[in-house]
Amino acid sequence: MLRFLTRRLGLALISLWLLSVLVFIGTNLLPGDVGRRILGPFATQDSVDLLNARLGTDRPLLTQYFDYMGSVLTGDLGRSVSFARPVTEMLGTALTNSAKLAVLAFVIVVPLAILGGVIAALKRGTIIDRSITVFGLSATVIPEFVSGIVAIVLFAITLKWLPGGAQAPAGSGIFQQIRYLLLPVIPLVLVLFGYIARITRAGMIDALDADYTRTAILKGLPRHVVIRRHVLRNALLPTIAVVATQVGYLFGGLVVVEVLFNYQGIGRLIFDAAQKADFPLLAGGVLVIGVIYQISTLLADMLYGVLNPRVRLGAES
Amino acid sequence: MSAANVSSAQRRAQLMRSATFWVGGSITLTWIIFAIFGDFVTPYDPAGSPMDILNRLAPPSSEHVMGTDSLGRDVLSRLLAGARQVLIIAPLATLIGTVAGTALGLTTGYFGGWIDEITSRVLDAFLSIPLIITAMLVLAALGPTTTGVILVIGLVFTPIIARTVRASTLAEARLDYVTAAKLRGEGAPHIMFVEILPNVMGPIVVEFTVRLGYAIFTTLALSFLGFGGDPSIPDWGQSISQHYVFLSGDIWWPTLFPALAIASLVVGVNLLADAIAQIFET
Amino acid sequence: MSDTITTDSVLSVENLRLEYRVGTEWQEAIRGVTFDIPRGKTFGLVGESGCGKSTVAMALMHYLPRNGRITSGTIRMGGRDITQLSGRELRELRIERLSMVYQDPMTSLNPSIRIGRQVAEVFELLGEPRDTIRDRVQAVLEQVKISDPESVVRRYPHQLSGGMLQRVVIAMAIASRPELLILDEPTTGLDATVEAEVLDLVTNLRDEVGTSVLFISHSLAVIRKMCDVTGVLYAGRMVAYGPTEQIFTEPRHPYTVGLLRCLPGAAGGEGRQTLDTIPGFLPPIGADLPGCVYVERCAIARDICAENEPELIEVGPKRYSRCHFHEEAPNLPRNVPVESTAVLAGDVLLSIRGASKTFQQDGRPVHALVDVNLDIKQGETLALVGESGSGKTTLAKIILGIHVPDEGALITLGGQIVPAAVEDRDDEQFHALQMVFQNPDSALNRRHSIRRIIGRAVQILKPGANVKVRVDELMASVRVGTQLLSVKPRQLSGGLKQRVAIARAFAGSPRVVVCDEPTSALDVSVQAAILNLLSELQRDERVSYLFISHDLSVVQYVADRVAVLYLGRIMEVGTSKRIFAGPHHPYTEALLSASPELEDDRRIRLVGEIPSASDPPPGCVFQTRCHRKIGEICETVEPPLVEAEEGYEIRCHIPVDELRRIQAAPLTR
Fold it and tell me: Can you tell me the ipTM of this complex?
């Protein structure tokens, strides 16, 4: 188990380092002349040079990279060009806001999707299975801004059940905040539902068809015990890994949802940074998302390891 | 009758019996027809005319079945014409991603070892950033163009498809027909492309159809966010981003109709993908 | 038939019919099977793959796949018809009276639940009080001869070997002291030594627990050893049924006669002759069979056989044969004429010196092969024998260049040095060294037609040959009709696929062909045909075989010389005659005694499990399990492989003469 953990941690660190290289390439190499990309084609060469000097983007690339990495490791992600504020500070506030959305979305979708997948598998081949599968399949591919708009038209404009904005008035209690967040959470939930449900269903079907399930049934165990004790445990293992990778998809969705609902989270920030070619802010945001993704998959793998005796105890040698 | 004929005939028969195939197929086909012949069937010029501005944001009526937008252009006409942009970008991007991903996946899966280790790490780093954010990053750096959108979606699809192909290739490379080929002295290209590739086509086809759905998703999300390339071309994502602010004023038609168009297209393509995936799985 | 169903049977099946849905059609797989299992006895169900053995077992447990249904017939147990039971009654039946042991113990236990918990479940279902369950679990594990039950209960399935897991499954099955225990191929996939232990265990438990047993196996030898009464199943029909000894010694159905004739006998090596085979194929599930199910493959069939299904005819006391002409069955004409396929070996062709192979596993070295020296002469068959993990396949792959051996190994072919890695070899070496694989499904590219598979091999391995002519020639020599050239492998039966794979290996003119368990995935009737084919090709082409097999009767039939491997080392090598006649290395002695054909009193039980190659025991690697261990020297000094007689080498501290003396004496238990 220790061996598995150290290896897994090492791999995560390598991936993060590679990510930093990729982000650096994306924000410093790809734009060519960074100052020119930010100021646009009509700025004078002097002002472009000035900006490059201020950003340090006139120095050799390798120097820039090591400098940047040096400050990243101390928690300093540089200054935003367009907002003229420290990137770390901006990301901090935005992350708190996004976390509210993300946590609410996960709290709703994970139990729902797992339940959906389990029911579909237990009712395999029936109309219930088909309905859940087709619904999940469709929900997953409808872009968040489309389902978001349908939700606004339906719940905020026509039925007037929910407020149209996402940001609760200052000083609102937790329930008030949740009420405001429900509408933007709907598209996130829809997108996540299909995938998690599909993996759960597949895991369930594998476990239901497994020889050990046959053994359990032929022992004379009642069906509900077979499912609870023998099937679910093995079936839900792959789901854990999938839920973690969904954290990645979720951030993609956050960009769109936060733009649509004008919500000040990390997605909105990255969108602004991309639009304004604010590369320090963009790089910082992308790095933070990468770190969150790596941490969540790491945690998922550890949880998987703890739950799976094959990993926890290794093979008998 | 050869095995290929039998099996493909059986597959075709199974496809013909599948309701998902027919529903998904007809929705998709409808939009493809609009994408090709949109110009001939639109009631008004999708690009609009200067006089339209007088009739802006008109609700649905007998003249404008879906109303007009903020510049007074016919929503229905722009809707029909808007299919083209996404149906050019998404398949091309998916094709690029599939071809590149297949080549990469075959190579890493077949050779294994350190080539595989390194590529896996780079791909993992790549995949830790959501597709749409990577795309925004690259388009912000290079400037948003239609070609850019195609290339960047193709680029981010490459590792995803490579992962699937690699897994299948690993499984195939363990089989004895590959050993037999090595014992004849066949070179790596022959083994990868002649021996292994035909056996991993199933997963590749499935992956292509599934990715196509995501490509449409991403293309539209990018155009909604303003990274969709040429702003003068009618485009559903763009229509929505330009009009959703009017929702609070109960002006829903320029937003809701493109939204429904998008929903129908992605669901159609996805049902089609699912039907195809089903026959390859059984 | 009702006269056979007596009150003395624990379970009676009458006219059972069962169908599977394939696509939209229902196809009959079990075509009216009738038998009963005498109380306290073992009933054997034997037949080739696809005949419906496992389907019958599952029907008895009333556990059918989602696409299966019983269409008619009854399964009576204790006066109740199992097919009519409610869900609750069925559960009670499975808890108390009917248990099953499955083919693959590795997948039959839940990977994420501890062994103790899984066994305890059975006692919970039996209503055992909570505080005694622990003891009961320990006791039942001891009963199946698990030496360390306290530690086994805390383990997970992946931490135990296949043999150990099968004991656990058996423990769960006998915990309730069931009236009937169904064993479905319980030893298939296990090593011969482990198989022998499991079979012993089953025999002892049957007497201890007093349960009746339904024993299902494809292996005629195992059935003969284990069962009192045997039924022969063919195409979903019971074709013969009666006391086991009579079924085997005086078969009265042409199918049984044919099957027995396919078994490779002892007449191997120099006296090797063609084996008899059964022509044709098993009819597919759902085929319309108005007459006798065996008519198409039967050499004594007449018109009536195609028209009228014969009854189960009583041919002796409690003995039945479903054949119109059962009296003629023993005189069934041979399908293959008797021919000698023996070859005189020539000079040394391939030689391996100092071959070792160390793999790295989790950072630790695993010595899969240690300093192996072997010679193969032209035209001879050298067999590699040993349990799984002994290094047989590693050695074969080193010869073929698929694995690169550790530094210091030397392979020569006809005196020329052969590069270690397959990529570095030249065309001539590719032509010379070929392989026939265990599993033809894996060996043939399923997307390529047969023409393409063989054609490509001809193109590469026989440059300059007219591809079409050579392909036709090869198809003729492996006896596959050229009309099958355009077909893909999955449309062929297992035997035909293996023939195609053989044709591919012979596309050039190979000098050494490695045969890695070429018949172990095949039924006996197909095995016989493939062995004949390999022998004929050897006779005609004077090719050498390196033949890997776990089946000692096959080895005895095909091999001229035998090398016995244990933990990557050669323990003994010599002529087949010498190895089988003895005196044996103690390990070989144990291997040979594991054969189900042998009587029980000659059985040597190996203690413990095969040690890990990453941590071999000090001294002689076999000392931890050796029943002939002589003392400290075995634990401290690894014996060298010495030439004890002309052409015979052995790795043992005990001198050969001493071995001869102690092995002649009866085994004391």
Answer: 0.87
